[in-house]
Amino acid sequence: MLRGLVTAAIGIVIIVLPGLTLVTTMLIVGIGLIIDAAIIALPILLGRTTPHLWKIVLTREVVQILAGLIFIFHPVLGIEIVLVLLGLLVLFRGILELIVLTEAQTTVRHRRWLLVIALAFIVVGIFTITGVSLGTEVLIDLVGVYILIEGLTHILSAFRRQSFQEELAQYETAILSHEGVSLPSSLTQLDKPQPRTKRSFLFPHLDTDKYRKIVILTPHPDDLEGFVGGLAYRLSGEVISVIFSGGDKGVWSKEYSVMETDDYIRVRLEESDTAALLLGVDEINYLGYLDRSVPMDEDSIRKVLAQFEHHQPDLVVSFEYLKRFTPYPHPDHLATANTVRHAVARYNADHALDYVVVSTLIPNSFLDVSGVRRIKLQALACHTTQADLNSLIFPFLEKLFSHLWGIFVGADYAEGYRRIDITRMREKLDNAQ
User: Fold this and answer.
1) Neighbouring C-beta atoms of residue 302, cutoff 10 Å
2) CATH superfamily to which 165-432 belongs
3) Where are the domains of the chain?
4) 247, 294, 291, 292: which is closest to 270 by C-alpha?
5) Which of 35, 281, 305, 339 has its CA 20 to 30 A from that of 294?
6) Which of the two residues, 85 and 349, has the higher pLDDT score?
7) How many CA within 13 A on the CB side of residue 430?
8) How many other CB atoms sit within 10 Å of the CB of residue 166?
C-alpha cells in the first residue's frame, strides 16, 4: 500500500506541477525509484522475507537503485532509457494483445475497440522507440501518467491481497508445522485451502473444480512447476504428472557435473517429488527419455496413450505444439507437445475430455494465480539443481507473461492456456496425412 501511495503521488506531482523540464522530471523519477526500492529492500535486509526468493528481489531492488542514481546524475541518459523502456513496454503489450484478439478462438466483448487500442499501443510504442518527437510537455505527461497508473495498480493489488491473506496463512502454517515430512517415494498430498469465490472474467477462465482426474505432460522435471504450477495447485481433482525427459543436460553447478547421468536424473526427479508436496500433485511418472532426445514417434505416442488408458483423464495439459505460437521452441518442448497432440487425437475416451496447452502466445483461457503465485515459485525453488537458471532468468519471464495474462482477466497474475478443439484437431491431422 505504501509503495502504491508513494508511486501515485510522484505521478501526480509530475502531471500537475507546472513548468517542469525533462531534467527535473528525471530527477523526480530517480528519487522515486530509490524510495520505491528502499520500501521493498528494507524488509528483506531485516529478514522478513521468503527464504527462497530474497536474493532475486534484493538484486532487482539494487538494480532499481542504480537506475535511480543514473536518472539523478545523468538525466540525459535517463531520458533515453525511459523512452526505450516505455516504447518497448507499450509495443510488446500492443503486439500480444493484437495476437490474442486475432488468433484466439474465443468470443470477446467489444473486440473492435480492443483491436483499436492494441493498434494504438503499437503505434505509440514504435514512435517512442524510433525517437519521433512527442513534444517535451507530452513526454513529461506521458511519464507522469505511466507512474500514476503504476501506483494505482499497486494500491489495487494491496486491497486484493487482503482477501488472500487468510488462505495463504493457513497454507503456510500447514507447511511449517509439517516437520516430519521426508523425501517421498509415494506422494502425500497436503490439504488444499477451499477455492475462492469465482469472479467475472472478460476472457474465458478454467474451472478448476470441474475435473476429476488430470494428466499434465511436461518435457522436463521442473516444467510443471514453472509453467503449470498455479493450475496444478488450484485443481481439486487427482493430478498425475508425466515427465518425458530426465533433464540430464541441465547441469548448472560443478557439484552435479561429476555425477553419472542416472544418478543426476534421480536427483532431479526427487526434486519433483518435493515440489509435488507443495502443489498437491498425486503421482509422477517418468517416461525414460534423455534431455534433448525426446522423440516424436510411434513408441512415444503409445507410451502417452498407455497413460491415458490407465488414468482415464478428463483434462489433459501439455505444451503448445505450433512452433510459431510458442515463446520457447525448445526441441523437447515441441516433441512432447506434438506427441501428446497425436495421442489425444487417437485416444477414444468414453467420457468428456478437455485438452489445453501452455507456453502459448495465443491463449484463450486463463487462470487467476494471484493468490498462489508465491507457492508456485516456492515449488520451482525446490529444484535446487537448477538454482542458477530458476533464480535469475525464469522468474523474470514468468512474471512478465503472468502479469500480462493477468491484464486480460482483471487479475494481478494469471496463467494463459489455449483450449484445443479436439474434433477440429483430428480433422486437420487426418487431412495432413
Assistant:
1) 13
2) LmbE-like (3.40.50.10320)
3) 2-160, 165-432
4) 247
5) 281
6) 349
7) 8
8) 10
